[in-house]
Every structure is written in structure tokens, then in C-alpha cells.
Design a protein that fits this description.
heterodimer, A: alpha/beta, Rossmann fold, 2 domains, B: mainly alpha, ABC transporter involved in vitamin B12 uptake, BtuC, 4 strands, plasmid (chain A), Leu_Ile_Val-bd (chain A), amino-acid transport (chain A)
Chain lengths: ~400, ~300
């Protein structure tokens, strides 16, 4: 789930990344995995340590994100160990590479299960996480998913898995909160007619009406078209206080420009599909002051400055988009084991269900479906050609 | 619908319609002369926008991002892409000129894919910003806001189209074009260099499309490898509505299509998602009841 990619990729569960793995890389990866496994066996494990598995893409196109996840989880665990560990035991970690590939993920998952880990955290690509849910479920291992957020994961969950990232549809909640905070009473919702953007438009419209708001206009544009003037005219005439664009950055930039060109003074709010530097480039000065609903990427979290600095100091590189959330999940699992008062996996799952953690990326509390109670999408605003956090 | 809204939609329709007309004109000219539906025309429009962006970024260093830069980009792009049209005709269409109509139609699809795929490979599918300092200043008539840029764009496309019409109806080359479009064999017997006339037709049609591409790029502020697809479709529709093969018909068809779209978005009782149903429904009605379009003459099929 990287910064700058179109949102449909996230929505469709990042299936697409799976296709890029070459045989050469596969061979390299297998060699690495074998070597690591051997190393792990020889060096690990004083008997009382609690072992946590980290599963993430350590090779392939998304290796950088996977490295971030591993680093950040370890950072959280190290902090816990430095304070005396959990229930008097130290936590150790072992990492398995899923390469964001379903087959590789199954191998990695089986490896972690056979190593006898107490719990597993990680998972970036929904496509790679999906087939492992059964493995961890059958083994009864608590599994906290960090990045992957397809709604398909919710359906396939056997009760032991927890989604620490908001599913895409929770964006509507954040949108409505922002509308209310900014005092918008009448909203024009514009989508591009595809499944993702029209779903988000519909959910947001329903949620806003439920809160007493008014939907002044609900418009649809054609993807690939350049002229939105007719829709812009309708929006202006509808008397909307603000426009919510639910589709992607190319159309978003054009719409923003044409709204401002037509003299529309109201607010403009964009869905997470516009989280791209291209949006700001194309919209130019018309993009100033536009709101974007962003996933909790580390650059946009106001409270993560210390974390960012410490991460850079520890690992010699900048914290990537999902580092903060990964850190939170490291904390979360240590917290759950502490509250379970044992390494018993059933007790840890029960403890996870009762989680109430205020992390860097937001609050982590689970619903009865083990998804986040509150959306972790957050509004950011375009200032001086950059996205900055809304204070 | 209030009067202001009506006027605003009228203005919107005229602006987008003048782009359609410009592209439809090239479509129609090529069809008129060699009876080929040049599916690559939309991609030529896209290429024009990219060439324009490159020139604009380059001359922008000296002349800034204002009107002068846009005019330079427009002229250079029209020349370069006009020549590209000639090259495409020479290598893709001329060898097929006596082949069955279906073969040349498929060649045109192939040419479209080559242009589109090349642009995709070179740009990596990115959307490029075409940022000008043209600004949003303009005049206000009650709540209707018309920017100076919009006025200049409409005037420029009308001037280009009027120039083209004058060329076709007043000059010897124009006369030769019309002769070739009526009967290619007889024209050759009369001593007209048919190959040259056809090359000229492609040059002019492609140059117009490139001009449209640069203006659209500068006006909407973004350029993308896929931008020609919908535009090609719309231009084809406009050409059919106006009467394919007719120069004034293409202009009329383009403007009419723009207006249909603007008002199609504001249909009573239904949302803007019905616009394309309305527009392309109209196209089907035209094809059924008046296949020659508004100003077209019936074409006698020569086998």
C-alpha cells in the first residue's frame, strides 16, 4: 500500500502487485529464506522467551515497505523489552518473507506456524494475506494485520485475525466528520461511475444524511474525459458548501481546476485515491486549501515527529508510510499478551478483542468483526504545494 | 432551469464543442478524400498535446508560461504532428489504398494502437501537468463567468476552421482535394497528383487535431496518453451528426455535440450519469433516420 498509488489498488486488495514476481527473484528469495531459517534455529530462543512472527514483503517490489514494517515492529518490541518485557518474559521476533505473493505467503506462514510462534503481525498485500488466514486460523494463532485492508479479509477471518488498518469503506465516516467540523451543510458528491468511487459516494451520502446533512447534488463523470464544465455548473447552481470527489487524482485535479475557474468558492474534499503528488502538480494553485482523506502515512501524523526522528536514528533511513501503524501494532500485541497474563493463544485473542490503545496512527479498538471501530483515515490539507496535517 | 444556468451551459457547450469541431474536421476531411475512418485521429490529438507540452516547457525558459509560449507550442506542434500524419499515411495507409475497406480500417486501428502504446511506454502512463499562467480572469454576466482564455480558445478554433474552409473552397489545392474526394481515378487522369493531395489532406487534418490537443492541454492543464481515446470517439460522433465528409458539417456537428452534452448533464429528473446515454442515443437516432448527417450528401459506394 504505497503512497502515491491509485486507490483502486488498495480497494481491490493489492492483487496487482502479485503479478510482478520473477523466477529469478523467487530463487533468490528461497535461498535467503533457507539461510535465515537456519540462522534463526541456531541463534534463537532461551526457553521462556515469547516469539512473535513478523510476516511482510522483504523481497520484491514492495520490499521497502516490508522492511519498514519489520523495523517499526521491532522498535516497538525493543521498547517493551527495555521496560522489562511482558509478564517478566522477553519478546523475540522472527521474520518471514511473503513477497506480497500468495504462494510465497503460504510458505512463509507455514514456516512461522512450524516455528511455534505465539502470535503473528504483518501483512501488507491483501492478496498475499488472504490464503494465510486459513493457516493461522486452523492453528489458532492470533494474527494482527498491519497494512492489508480488503473487505475480503473480513469475510475470510476465522476469528483469530485483526485488521489494524481501516477498510476502505470507513473513509465515509472520516469524510462526514470533516464536513461537520468545517460546518458544511450542503455537499455535492461526485464520482467517476466505477465500483470504488460510486460506493464511497453512496456510503458518504448516506452517512451525511444520517447526521442531518443535505446532499445538494450527486454527479457522475466519465473517466478519461477532460471537460467537467457541465457538472461544475450544476454544482455551482445547487448551492453546495463543498464538493466531495471520491474517485482518482487525474479527474480530481481537473475537477478542482474547473471548479475554481468557474468561481466556485466552497470547500473541496478528495477521497484517498487522490493521494498523489501528480494531483498537486496538475491542480497547481487551484489545489491550495483542498482537503484530502489520507491513510495514516507517517509524514501526515502530527504526533509522529519523535517517532520519525528515532526511526531515522535507529535504522538510518526515513520511516515509510506504514511505519507508524506497524509500531502501534508492535505495541498492541505486547499489550495484549500482558493483559492475557500468559502466552496462551486463546487468551491473547480475547485480550486483543478488548484492545483499547492510543497509538501514533490513531486509536485501536476492535468491532465484533475484528475491524477498527474508528476510521484511521485523516484529513490533510494542501498548503504550498504539499499535503500537511490538519491541526 | 434558470436563465443563468441555461446561459452557463450554453457557454460550456460551445467551448467543449469547439474542441470537438476541430478534431471532427480532420476526421471528416480524411474520410471525404479517401473514405477512411482514421481511428488514429484521436491519438494524433494526444500526440499533439504532448509535442505542445514539450515545446511549451522548452520555450517557457525564455518566454515564460503565458500566451506567447502557448502560441509557440501550438505552431510547432501543428507542424510536427502534421508531418507525423503524413508519415502515417505514407507507411500505413498508402500501401493499403487498393485493399478491401475492412483491411484499411484495421490498419487504422493498428496505427491508433501504435501511437497510443508508444506514448504509454514513453510516459509510463503518468498524467503530466501543463501549467500555464493564463489564469481564471474574465468577465461576469450576472452569475455566468467566462474567462478570457475560454474566449481566445473559441476564437482560435473558429479561426482555424474558417481558414480550413477557405483553403478547401478557394485554393487550387482545395479544388484538387474536392476533385479527389469525388473521383480519385478521374482526378489522376486529369493530371492531379493524387498522392500529394492525400498527403496534404493528412497534414492539414493532423495539424488541426494537434492544434486542438495543445489548446485542450493548456486549457485543462493536464496531458495523458489516453486523452485521445474519448476525444476520438466524440469527434467521430460529431462528424457523423454533422455529415461525415462535410467540412461545415463537422463544425456544426462538433458544436451541437458540445451543447447536447452540456444540456444532457442537466436533464430534469435524472443525474449526470445519464448524459452519455442521451448523447449516444442521439447518435443512434441520427444513424437510423439520417445516416448522411445534417449537412452530408449521400455517398455512392464504389466497389
Amino acid at each position: 500500500m504505497h503512497f502515491g498509488h491509485a486507490a483502486w489498488m488498495r480497494q481491490q486488495g493489492k492483487w496487482r502487485e502479485l503479478m510482478v514476481v520473477s523466477f529469478k527473484r523467487l530463487a533468490k528469495r528461497l535461498a535467503c529464506a533457507t539461510a535465515l531459517a537456519g540462522l534463526a534455529m541456531t541463534t534463537m530462543a532461551a526457553a521462556a522467551d515469547i516469539k512473535i512472527g513478523i510476516v511482510a514483503p522483504m523481497t520484491g517490489q514492495l520490499a521497502s515497505e516490508g522492511q519498514d514494517m519489520e523495523n517499526a515492529v521491532k522498535m516497538a518490541i525493543d521498547a517493551v523489552n527495555a521496560k522489562g518485557g511482558v509478564n517478566g518474559d522477553k519478546i523475540i521476533t522472527t521474520t518471514a518473507d511473503d513477497a506480497c505473493d500468495p504462494q510465497q505467503a503460504v510458505t512463509a506462514g507455514s514456516k512461522l506456524v512450524s516455528e511455534g510462534v505465539t502470535a503473528i503481525v504483518g501483512g501488507y498485500c491483501s492478496g498475499a494475506v488472504l490464503p494465510t488466514l486459513k493457516i493461522y486460523g486452523d492453528a489458532g494463532i492470533p494474527f494482527v494485520i498491519i497494512g492489508a485492508n480488503s473487505t475480503k479479509l473480513v469475510a475470510a477471518n476465522q476469528g483469530n485475525a485483526f485488521l489494524a488498518n481501516s477498510t476502505g469503506d470507513m473513509q465515509a465516516t472520516t469524510a462526514v466528520e470533516l464536513f461537520k467540523k468545517n460546518g458544511y451543510k450542503k455537499i455535492a458528491v461526485v464520482d467517476e461511475g466505477d465500483a470504488y468511487s460510486s460506493d464511497l459516494a453512496k456510503l458518504t451520502a448516506e452517512a451525511f444524511k444520517g447526521e442531518g446533512g443535505e446532499i445538494a447534488a450527486k454527479e457522475t463523470t466519465t473517466a478519461g474525459e477532460q471537460d467537467y464544465s457541465a457538472v461544475v455548473t450544476k454544482i455551482k447552481a445547487s448551492g453546495a458548501d463543498a464538493v466531495f470527489w471520491t474517485a482518482y487524482h487525474a479527474g480530481g485535479a481537473l475537477l478542482t481546476k474547473q471548479l475554481r475557474q468557474a468561481g466556485f468558492q466552497g470547500g473541496i474534499v478528495l477521497g484517498d485515491g487522490n493521494n498523489s503528488p501528480e494531483y498537486l502538480e496538475i491542480a497547481g494553485s487551484a489545489g491550495e486549501g483542498v482537503y484530502l482523506l489520507s491513510p495514516p502515512t507517517v509524514d501526515l501524523l502530527s504526533g509522529a515527529a519523535d517517532f520519525k526522528a528515532k526511526y531515522k536514528e535507529t535504522y538510518g533511513r526515513d520511516a515509510g508510510a506504514y511505519a507508524a501503524l506497524s509500531y502501534d501494532v508492535g505495541d498492541l500485541i505486547a499489550d495484549a499478551i500482558t493483559r492475557a497474563k500468559s502466552a496462551d493463544q486463546k487468551a491473547i485473542i480475547e485480550a486483543l478483542k478488548a484492545s483499547d490503545l492510543k497509538g501514533l496512527a490513531g486509536e485501536i479498538k476492535f468491532t465484533d468483526k475484528n475491524t477498527l471501530q474508528t476510521s484511521n483515515f485523516r484529513p490533510v490539507i494542501a498548503k504550498g504545494g504539499k499535503w500537511v496535517a490538519v491541526e | 432551469m434558470t436563465l443563468d444556468l441555461l446561459i452557463q451551459q450554453l457557454v460550456n457547450g460551445l467551448i467543449v464543442g469547439s474542441f470537438y469541431a476541430l478534431i471532427a474536421l480532420g476526421y471528416s476531411m480524411v474520410f471525404g478524400v479517401i473514405k477512411l475512418l482514421n481511428f488514429a485521429h484521436g491519438d494524433i490529438y494526444m500526440n499533439g498535446a504532448f509535442v505542445g507540452l514539450i515545446v511549451f516547457s522548452f520555450v517557457g525558459i525564455w518566454v515564460g508560461n503565458g500566451w506567447l509560449g502557448v502560441v509557440c507550442a501550438l505552431l510547432v506542434s501543428m507542424l510536427v504532428v502534421g508531418l507525423l500524419g503524413v508519415v502515417i499515411e505514407r507507411f500505413a495507409y498508402r500501401p493499403m489504398r487498393n485493399a478491401p475497406r475492412l483491411s484499411i480500417l484495421i490498419t487504422a486501428l493498428g496505427a491508433s494502437m501504435v501511437l497510443n502504446g508508444t506514448a504509454l511506454a514513453l510516459t509510463g502512463g503518468r498524467h503530466y501537468a501543463f501549467n500555464t499562467d493564463l489564469g481564471f480572469a474574465g468577465i461576469d454576466i450576472s452569475t455566468v463567468h467566462i474567462t478570457y482564455t475560454q474566449m481566445v480558445l473559441v476564437a482560435a478554433s473558429i479561426a482555424l476552421m474558417a481558414g480550413m474552409q477557405a483553403f478547401v473552397s478557394r485554393t487550387m489545392y482545395g479544388k484538387a482535394m474536392r476533385a479527389v474526394s469525388i473521383d480519385m481515378g478521374a482526378s489522376r487522369l486529369m493530371g492531379i497528383d493524387v498522392d500529394r493531395v492525400i498527403a496534404l489532406t493528412f497534414f492539414m487534418g493532423s495539424a488541426l487535431a494537434a492544434g486542438g490537443g495543445v489548446m485542450a492541454g493548456a486549457y485543462y492543464g493536464s496531458v495523458h496518453f489516453f486523452m485521445g481515446f474519448i476525444m476520438g470517439l466524440k469527434a467521430f460522433t460529431a462528424a457523423v451528426i454533422g455529415g461525415i465528409g462535410s467540412v461545415p458539417g463537422a463544425m456544426l456537428g462538433g458544436l451541437l455535440l458540445g451543447l447536447l452534452e452540456a444540456f444532457g448533464s442537466s436533464l430534469p429528473f435524472v443525474g449526470s450519469e445519464w448524459r452519455d446515454v442521451f448523447v449516444f442515443g442521439t447518435l443512434i437516432l441520427f444513424l437510423v433516420f439520417k445516416p448522411t448527417g445534417l449537412l452530408g450528401r449521400s455517398v455512392v459506394e464504389r466497389v
